[in-house]
Specification:
128 residues; three-stranded antiparallel β-sheet; 4 helices; 3 strands; binds zinc ion
């Protein structure tokens, strides 16, 4: 996540610096920023982490499923927060939304990597 924000801030900073430094028009950058913002909105909801199907015990006394060791299927969301690995149970009805958010999150990270590469390529082209 730290790298993710480092890349994002690098990109956002450089979008302002690039036009003045390398002669790119301000209008073109604004258009590219708007296109990125539109793409970002289309990627909502967003999340980073992983989702796993686990089996958890319940609190009912003498539950047959728990006594047999089968327990109950549940979704577990794992993520990193302030450098620490965290886990949370996910209500079943939220599963599809979270899956979509994680897929969107992977897509966004991929886009950021592409944007970093594009930034370098543009710099090299303009330098000749
Ligand atoms: Zn149980």
């Amino acid at each position: 996540m730290e790298i993710f924000f480092a890349v994002l801030f690098f990109l956002l900073d450089n979008m302002y610096i690039v036009p003045y430094t390398y002669g790119m028009s301000k209008i073109k950058v604004a258009t590219e920023q708007q296109a990125f913002m539109d793409e970002l909105v289309s990627l909502w909801p967003l999340a980073k982490g992983s989702l796993a199907l686990v089996r958890k015990p319940c609190i009912r006394p003498n539950c047959p499923a728990c006594r047999s060791g089968k327990k109950h299927p549940a979704l577990m969301f794992s993520f990193t927060q302030a450098g620490k690995r965290r886990c949370r149970y996910v209500p079943a009805e939220l599963g599809p939304v979270l899956r979509k958010a994680l897929s969107n999150g992977r897509r966004l990270e991929q886009r950021l990597a592409e944007l970093g590469a594009e930034l370098l390529e543009r710099y090299r082209r303009q330098r000749g």
